[in-house]
Amino acid sequence: MAVVELSNVGKRYPGAESLAVEDFNLTSEDGEFVVLVGPSGCGKTTTMRMIAGLEEHTEGAIKIGGRDVTGVAPKDRDIAMVFQSYALYPHMTVRDNMAFSLKLKKYAKSDIKKRVDDAAAVLGIEPLLDRKPRALSGGQRQRVALGRAIVRQPQVFLMDEPLSNLDAKLRVDMRAEIVKLHRKLGVTTFYVTHDQTEAMTMGQRIAVMKDGLVQQIDSPNTLYQHPANLFVAGFIGTPSMNFLTAEVSDNGQALSGPDFQLATDGPRRSVLADHGQTQVWAGIRPEHLHLSDSESADNRMQGQVEVVEPLGAMTMIQVLIGDTRVTAQIKPHQMVAMGDTVTLGCPSDKLYLFDKDSEMTLHGIDIGQSDAH
Amino acid sequence: MATRAIRSTVKTRQRQLGKASQGMISFLLIGPAVVYLFVWMLVPLAMTIYYSFRNYNLIRPTFTGWAGIANYANVLADPDFLSAFINTLVLVVASLILTILFGLFFAVLYNNEHVFGRNILRTFAASPFFIMPVVTGLIWSNLMMNPSFGLLAALWRGLGLVPIDFLAQFPMPSLVGIVTWQWTPFAMLVLLASLSGVPEDLKEAAGLDGAGAWKTFRHIVLPQLGRPLYAVVMLESIFFLVIFGQIYVTTSGGPGTATTNLPYYIYLQAFSAYNIGAASAGAIFAVILANIVAIFLVRMIYSNIQEEA
To answer: Residue A69: pLDDT above 70?
Structure first.
């Protein structure tokens, strides 16, 4: 168990003009579950591989348990990694796979057996110990890969998209199981994924990355409620937040655009007045939109329904407002058909405002500032 | 009930018919290859067996008839045959070990992306394999090992040493060297292909598990090379058992019988002593030896595959 400290960490590949990862700052707490999330190519895997020592960081410093690991080989960093492909040794049995690191460290035979058996019991893979990896299903391989990591009792766990090769149902099960395992072992864990649902459900703290840059590091709820910029707002939450280009009028009293008119509440009014720009991004989450009857309401958006997706517990509709497609979540009993013209409403205090050019939030939350744990 | 039963029997019938005609088609398709193999392998084998029991000597054309096991007895009693047998084994085993060791070394070397210009080097390293055996022999006996004009002689003189006549003083080691030079690329190419197929994350996982470069190679990479290694051993032993061209143009089996292997012994019996009967008997022994090696290897490979499956 250890604190992992990344300060101004960056990676420049030889010959590359720009940095693959830039100025990454994060200090984990002891035993924290940190998720790195972002679209592919955002540098999250590179960051993890730099912590593992599989890639050398070219800028900044990485400390594990207070020790600067620059130039320290992966084998001497006391970390365990679960690979996306599991990377089980195909010619060894499950037991030998799990025992490999202990054998290299020259543990006593009885010790090795005990630790492998204990780990197998935790993961429920005792009946598989004498099988070869190819005789296992995807979920079983996943467990063995986890077992190989926990048997070593390392200071840090690294997991690189460990669930992406599993089918949807198994993924949900394993998600809960990894979280449970983490609670039980209390080892600092870094977890890479491109799936925001995985990130939200598993992470105690989430680092959202894009193009090698950290966009925001916060708890799941803070990310959802106070996204630092347009990218985080759109990335966290399904379906994604809707964004409309809005003209600011009446000194921040109202936001308007083709086919919509939004009134602002007190706090937003002052934010907009301070901001002073004539155009902003207005963000509204689908779950905050509702069908509205009254033509006279302050907040209304009018458009034609293009898609109706009944999901049982709710219905998602897509409405063309101006030339922007807006997704709204409505109640299943509200009958809406394709081609209908509907009016959508939204509470003023659920509006998100972002600068038109920098795409940063106007709500005064800085990147990286965390307000909840 | 009854109609259903009838219908099902009809269906089975159709299925059986289908199977029969399918069998016919596959037989017709394989047929030509089977006939070809039969004519080109079994017929010569049968003729060799036949001659090995006949009195058939081109110097004494009138001396014919059945020889019984006289040809076999004569071959077995011939001290040259015994030394040819031993020479064959020495040549095969020594060349096998050396080609695999060198092949593995170069495969690992050229698989490493940090080796500068490895693509060009790889092509050069593979080239000896594309040279014909006779040409290989001529290159080594005349260009390299010739005691007066050879490159090695020049090197020795340059160092102030007396040039060595390799093929006369160390005939078998020289021959093993020539064969190794020619066949190392084969082992290298096969192993290189397998090495590049070992997933990178396996090696990374081993590294994180605490294995250094050597232990990663020993415990993770080498076990992945089991099958290709067996393939190399099997193919090379088959080819090394029948080496002829390199011997013919370098040492002619000499000095004495120092580099006479079984194929060369058979050649000498047939085209130097003109004793076709004895040559055929020797050839049968060679076939038996080849089969022992083949069965031994197939067993080994089979059990290896069984174990892995």
So the answer is: yes
B201: phi then psi, degrees, rounded to nearest 5: -70, -20
Average pLDDT score over residue span A227-231? 91
Residues B145-165: what's their mean pLDDT?
86
A164 closest CA partner among A79, A80, A83? A83
Non-local (6+) Cβ contacts of B24 within 8 A are none
- Residue B9: what pLDDT? 59
Residue A46 CA from chain centroid, whole number: 16
Phi, psi (degrees; rounded to nearest 5) at B69: -100, 15
Residue to substitute from B208, B222, B227, interface A, most A β-carbons within 10 A: B208
Q: Which residues contact B261 (CB under 8 A, 6 or more apart)?
A: B84, B87, B88, B91, B243, B247, B253
Q: Is the pLDDT of residue A251 over 80?
A: no
Separation of alpha carbons B100 and B185, rounded Å: 10
Contact status of B202 with chain A (Cβ, < 8 Å): yes
- Return the CATH architecture of domain A239-355: Beta Barrel (2.40)
Cβ pair A83:B206 closer than 8 A = no
Neighbour tally for B268: CB within 10 Å: 20
* 8 Å CB contact of B219 and A100: yes
Dist CA B191 CA A2 (whole Å) = 42
CATH number of A4-231: 3.40.50.300
Which candidate, A69, A202, A92, places its Cα nearest to that of A147?
Answer: A92
User: Is the Cβ of B208 closer than 8 Å to some Cβ of chain A?
Assistant: yes
Per-residue pLDDT, averaged over B280-293, amounts to: 88
Q: A84-121 burial string, b = 16+ CB within 10 Å, else e?
A: bbbbbbbbbbbbbbbbbbbbbeeeeeeebeebbeebbe
Question: Average pLDDT for residues B225-247, to the nearest whole number?
Answer: 87
CATH of B70-308, one of 3.10.20.310, 1.10.443.10, 1.10.3720.10, 3.30.565.10: 1.10.3720.10
What's the pLDDT at A366? 37
Contacts of range A171-178, beta carbons closer than 8 Å, 24 or more positions apart: A171/A198, A173/A139, A174/A139, A174/A142, A175/A201, A175/A202, A178/A146, A178/A202
Question: Would you say A76 and A191 are in contact if contact means Cβ atoms under 8 Å apart?
Answer: no
Chain A hits for B220, Cβ within 8 Å: 89
Contact partners, residue A279, CB within 8 Å, separation at least 6: A245, A246, A247, A248, A356
Alpha carbon distance A260, A246 (integer Å):
9
Residues A78-100 have a mean pLDDT of 90
Q: Token pair of B235, please?
A: 């193919």
Per-residue pLDDT tens for A144-196?
A: 998 999 898 889 999 998 888 888 888 888 899 899 989 988 899 999 999 99
Assess contact for A228 and A215: CB atoms under 8 A: yes
B308 part of contact set with chain A, CB < 8 Å? yes
* Residue of higher predicted confidence among A298 and A193: A193
